[in-house]
């Protein structure tokens, strides 16, 4: 398995291979997780003082003289209902819609959120497919990885200025969590509206009353054990350990959070681990964890680039490195080294997304990012990047 931008595609730095064969046991965080045995070959991408890798493989290159400017393509889709989102994902995002997306949209609407057109993407990270917006202005969306491996489901995310926050690894997991939280809240007047809105999907995913019957007093504990792992729950668990004075458990849980197979492509776990290491005075280890985080797409950090660079004890060298890589000189240097043109373009697109995330200026980079994907042979992704209502 290649450690890449989405855990599958490298960014093309000086590389070295680390091959390990291991039997590892995913231990319980008040959860019961079966032992998993795995054999992995990891290709770790690294560059001197500029550590950077990721899970996605997005690159961009400056338009060449013979390139044809991309138009802001508008596919004919209806976006006022779940059918609009489904057709948008098929026809514009060029991927398979989640099976139970229509049920999730109904649930979001039932809990008071406004359904948003999937093409209403002005000012957003161009990989997001909007679903809904709540009264506080928070937007829930699907994340369309440009180079996701076959069979990988689209994560559910919250869209933020500098990128996204992972809510769930897939739609079914998010539906399941919402249903459990509603069931646990029945004592406060919940009447099962969301369960009814979930229709057949809800019946397959959760049996009402199971939380009470489980005798697990802590809702977070039930979710982690019965539903799945979620970034906010793991972070809350760590902080609860600190509150209880159990520093060892806090650090162990923080380390577990960074397992690469849990939240592939996201740098947030490494950022949080760096923060807690810093909290206990382990600055050197915190620096290392922050630098690993910055190998992931910067828009997956869950905070600003500057916050993480500070822990990593880096100033602007990472930004300057990227700017050099996306220059014509950097492009030609990569080509002279024998890197394929498509890979150079993909790397450039990834770098441009990182640069855009620093200030959240996504619109300034759209045309160039789309041109890169087109040059890499991903015309459908290029059209998706540019699409706006």
TrEMBL record:
<feature type="transmembrane region" description="Helical">
    <location>
        <begin position="20"/>
        <end position="42"/>
    </location>
</feature>
<dbReference type="InterPro" id="IPR045287">
    <property type="entry name" value="PAB"/>
</dbReference>
<keyword id="KW-1133">Transmembrane helix</keyword>
<keyword id="KW-0812">Transmembrane</keyword>
<keyword id="KW-0472">Membrane</keyword>
<protein>
    <recommendedName>
        <fullName>Cyclin delta-3</fullName>
    </recommendedName>
</protein>
